[in-house]
Amino acid sequence: MAAVSLIEFIMKFAIALFSAAHAPSSRRALLFAQAALAGGHEIVRLFFYQGAVFNASDAVVTPQDELDLPKQWRAFINDKQLDGVVCIAAALRRGVLNEEEAKRYQRDAISLSAPWELSGLGQLHDAVQDADRLVCFGGA
Amino acid sequence: MAKSLLIISRQSPWSGPGAREALDIVLAGGAFDLPIGLLFLDDGVLQLAAGQNAKALQQKDLSANLQALPMFGVEELFYCAESAHARGLGQLSLDEAQPLATDQITALIDRYDQVITL
Hints:
Chain B: This is Sulfurtransferase TusC. The structure holds 2 protein chains of 2 kinds. Chain A is of the alpha/beta class. Chain A has a single domain (12-58, 68-137), classed as Hypothetical Protein Ychn, Chain: A, CATH 3.40.1260.10. Chain A contains 5 helices and 5 strands. Chain B is of the alpha/beta class. Chain A binds chain B through residues 16, 18, 49-50, 89-90, 93, 120-122, 124-125, 128-129, 133-134, 136, 139-140, and chain B through 2-3, 5, 10-11, 17-18, 21, 24-25, 28-29, 32, 34, 114-118.
């Protein structure tokens, strides 16, 4: 019997995350994303909305004996050269600012940097249109 | 052809930014002329309650944004009849929203290419 390879069914996934870094669903989202790539699939974009903006925050300090999810997301996105987009409105509301926004709103605290990108909800819709499947984690 | 997207809004209007952020996805989709639907489910139907007083909570009024949905090209508006009934909602503030029974909701979700529940 011939082995069936998943690579024959390559899928384009868009992944949306809505929960904060300490939520179990955020860890599941990362595991799903890693598994998708390991299975030969493509991730068109990771979109972080609502509390998920904290996954992208450089200001999250995780106790040493706990899983540092923001660090893992960063390493994963860098390593796989993925498009990690954080909703700008959701991020500003929650105090997650990159250098440009900190300057714009005259804040001292900069808590978001590359590879993360701040952008609008259009990026979510764009990813939905581009992907075969949208997979959401941490919604209501 | 553009893929259709259904947003299922399950948050009550004054429990945090959740309801507004779900609505923002819908409005953004409407602005891009995408086929987009909005279903109010569970506590989400409370967003449609008439006579809300946002000012008393020092909040911005969400219902004005909801009224504007058809103007933004979002005409597929639905709510779960059972959720509304369970919460004692009579008159709703959004005339355009159609009540759906549970089996109709199943069919509705089937009809869309992608679904986001918030």
